[in-house]
What we know:
Layout: H1 2-9, H2 14-33, H3 38-55, H4 61-78, H5 82-104, H6 126-149, H7 155-173, H8 179-201, H9 207-236
Amino acid sequence: MIEKLKGYLAEWSVFEKVWISLFTAITVYLYFAFQDTLLGLISSIAGMLCVVLVAKGKVSNYVFGIVQTVTYGYIAFGYGLYGEAMLNWLFYFPTQFIGIWMWMNHFKKKEDSEHGENVYVKRLTRKGWILVAGSFVVGALVYAELLTVLSAQQVRIDSMAVVLSVIAQILMVQRYAEQWIIWILVNILTITLWGITLVQTGGNDWNMVIMWTAFLVNSIYGYVNWVKLSKVQKAED
């Protein structure tokens, strides 16, 4: 067991080890300092492990994704962020299982792996970008109307973040490196969303802001890593 753990950690870069250790320590500190909820702590740590493993191209990310989507959806619902709650419960949660299935169908054997990744990476074409942009504009406008009817909080930011999240998740399941560009936008919007919400409501779940900040850092790293993997894969082809 110890040898297997050492072998697994050997696939992690120094940056990845430092990154996950730092943000986990900050999350635990905030849990005690601000009397955060246990659910918030669990959601934050599960979320951070999930996104790090996605950046590494590991299928195991979906295990932590299942935990994070259920817990985060509950927290968001409690703050009236119905767009975030519906996104996690009705979309993210079922797509974790779809992701497992699709990634396993394109599983990369260990002997073919450059950096311990389990997945073959694809790149988005110009036509794909046009489809992404059009879907975002139409989806954000329609979803904003729905959230307005539901009397949700921060409708404009929430609708944009949700629609971009749906697009990014679809790109993720289909193994496109450009998912990370969309995730960067999602993370910036969601950090803003939670910051405004917590200040206005006086809530204590600041772990959510830390979690999304960690996601932002990871998205930048994820993009760099996936582009690198796609170049290696292209060279091999």
